[in-house]
Structures
1.
Amino acid sequence: MSQTLAIIKPDATGNGKAGKILALLEEKGFTVKALRMTRLSEAQAGEFYAVHAERPFYGELVEFMTSGPCIPMVLEADDAVPALRDAIGATDPAEAADGTVRKLYAESKGRNAIHASDSDENAAREIAFFFSESDRITTAG
Ligand code: ATP
Ligand code: MG
């Protein structure tokens, strides 16, 4: 078992799809190990997506991620990082496979419902960004 970070993004919390997304992730076999709702500041969103700071969509991305509440969560599964990337689908919902979170719930490449860590190293960094050790359920169940 390993862990990864997902964030239900402001488009999905705003249009009432957060519960359906969480249910779908549980159906796909992920176990929730930590979860909270927060509204990111501009500084927090900028830091979280600092790797994209030079990209043309960075300003739009930070504006979107601060536009409403988001729900970061720690998810556990076998090979959690690639498993969650498979479950959420391609960045652009038009290219996402059937049954994926983005195919079902994303509006566009920018407003795409969910984030997932892209490596074990980034998962560890991103989990620590949102959760302290005591927030995370480490015992069985
Ligand atoms: P995330 O990191 O949110 O899980 P991802 O790994 O599929 O998404 P990245 O390439 O890391 O995609 O881009 C981060 C986020 O930036 C995307 O989820 C999307 O919201 C936004 N983004 C990426 N490319 C574009 C684009 N061309 N136009 C607008 N927004 C974009
Ligand atoms: Mg990414």
2.
Amino acid sequence: MRVFVTRSLPGEALNRLKERGLEVEVHPGPLLPREELLRKVEGVVGLIPTVEDRIDAPVMDRAKDLKVIACYSVGVDHVDLEAAKARGIRVTHTPGVLTEATADFTLALLLAVARRVVEGVDYAKAGLWKAWHPELLLGLDLEGLTLGLIGMGRIGQAVAQRALAFGMRVVYHARTPKPLPYPFLPLEDLLQEADIVSLHTPLTPETHRLLNRKRLFAMKRGAILLNTARGPLVDTEALVEALKGHLFGAGLDVTDPEPLPPGHPLYALPNAVITPHLGSAGRRTRERMAEVAVENLLAVLEGREPKNPVV
Ligand code: DGY
């Protein structure tokens, strides 16, 4: 029985598959061309894809023996869940283990944007640092600012806890209000009130371009946008415009398109801090994600209920 893994994964988890007698093929990366992915999945019973691999009906149809797609991610927008359901293929993901790492990274982006860390680094490296000046690269003081979280699952709540430690006020919007000690606001109210808007909602047809042009410009003048969730939640073209005067800045760990091609207008903006989808990139976190994906995959193949089913 064969399992295909679309990237090499940190840690030892994949050895467990071999110990159970499975034949494992690992594509080291980068992204497999579509044709090659279609060829590689032929005859596999298990697939471990990453967020960049589009696992849709044609892929599933080529993988006639496929029983489980064990995503190496919490987000599953790269998998056609309906197609999987229709074919009786189980889909699992890795919630929980990456919560703290992603929340940490959200704060890293917030600090980088608010305190103009990247601009400061570039300034120093360019040899422009000749003297200390009281007005050099002034940023935003976080204490007392309002953080508006859109999406209040595990990661949103972990970001909220960290924001409190910085003396910020937290408000949130989610599909339904939750029993939490933060005010729930309708989306349009949150956009008007928040000094910082941070996205923590899954990408679905309903949330695609949730922050469209109208909503981006409905954000407070001088606010910050953070996106560690999924790029297509935001209208990129409108964001470029909003960053040229309306917003203070943006911290983007995810983009649309992703990867963001060299020369993209976002790169030219000093107030956009862009990182290559690193939210969960703590070594221990990425190892645990591999363990969870492997455990889910084995559970399905061994006839047990997986711990983290999506379909
Ligand atoms: C996820 O898990 O969905 C992240 O985007 C990658 O870790």
